Amino acid sequence: MENRTKMLLSLSLVALFAALTAAGTFISIPLPFSPVPVVLQNMFALLSGMILGPLMGSAATAVYLIIGALGAPVFAGAKGGFAIFLGPTGGYLLGYLLASLIAGLIVGSPRTHEGTNWVRIILAALAGIIVIYIPGLLRLNMVMNGNWAKTFTAGLIPFILGDLVKGAVACLITPRLRSLISDIYHA
């Protein structure tokens, strides 16, 4: 495949995963005891890195975040604007970008045409989930006036099981899509 075609394919995949992450806003379940809703954007940000690799995966997540910062209603609850980054969920949004990068670094680029390595895929999912929580909880704790008990109750405990399920789904989806993308690049 010639370089121009590969570049177009790469740009299309980045745009696709940015759009998928944005589409995750349509699944946003507010919780009465937390300013943090249940969302699917975190799974798509994780998938971006796991499927596209570190550069393209984080580029897709960065495009999603930039579009949201510019005001497009792509964040949880169909909200947009830079002010969301300063609110209780702003740290999680930063975590999405870090998760795409870290998960992609662990799994590697699909262009290398490596076989499926389940250990790396599972580690990438777990690391990505943890990396979303770190800045998310730090920012939420600032909003909660430094009360870690409230922070964990509102931003961690109710989400762990669901995020592990989303991570498992990402692990199941990743090998086939990475293989498909690798085959297209090497056609």
UniProtKB/TrEMBL annotation:
Domain of life: Bacteria
TM helices/strands, residue ranges: 44-70, 82-106, 118-138
Membrane listed as a keyword: yes
Cell inner membrane listed as a keyword: no
InterPro entries in the record: BioY
Keywords tagged on the record: Cell membrane, Membrane, Transmembrane, Transmembrane helix, Transport
Coiled-coil residue windows: none
Protein's membrane topology: Multi-pass membrane protein
Subcellular location: Cell membrane
Single GO cellular component term: plasma membrane
A single MF term (Gene Ontology): biotin transmembrane transporter activity
Family, per entry: Belongs to the BioY family.
PANTHER family linked: BIOTIN TRANSPORTER BIOY
Protein name: Biotin transporter
Species of provenance: Gracilinema caldarium (strain ATCC 51460 / DSM 7334 / H1) (Treponema caldarium)
